[in-house]
Specification:
The chain has 119 residues and is mainly alpha-helical. It is built from six helices and three strands, in the order αβααββααα. A hairpin with a 2-residue loop joins β2 and β3. The longest helix has 17 residues. It starts with 7 loop residues before the first helix and ends with a helix.
């Protein structure tokens, strides 16, 4: 999949949609006015751009996401891995663990993920 990046404001906008979808475009305008202090035209401009990028859709005045939050987070995680660690998951884990100690519960959860992947 192509790289998908959202700026800080775009992320807040899409997060509001993920939390409420499907959401009527009128309701979204009101929400953006309240939460982001946006005018109606700003909301529709950002919505149109994100629809053109294939992230959202606006059909019959109902806004939904084309990319779910979990998928977006997975894409972002993969991109961080590529950009910062040359695609190496072990290098990422080593860097993370060098600054933060994992709890027994976290270790067990990671081990379970690995074990499930092996099967």
């Amino acid at each position: 999949m192509d790289e998908i990046r959202l700026g800080e404001v775009e992320s807040r906008f899409v997060e509001m949609i993920w939390e409420r979808e499907p959401i009527g475009s009128g309701e979204l305008v009101n929400l953006c006015e309240k939460e982001l202090s946006w005018k109606k035209s700003t909301t529709y401009t950002v919505l149109r751009r994100l629809c053109q990028r294939g992230i959202l859709q606006n059909c019959n005045a109902v806004v939904t996401s084309l990319i779910k939050k979990e998928e977006y987070m997975a894409i972002q995680s993969e991109q961080v891995l590529e950009d910062a660690f040359e695609g190496s998951l072990p290098r990422f884990v080593a860097a993370f663990m060098s600054r933060k100690k994992l709890s027994r519960k976290q270790i067990d959860e990671i081990q379970k993920l690995i074990d499930d992947y092996k099967e």
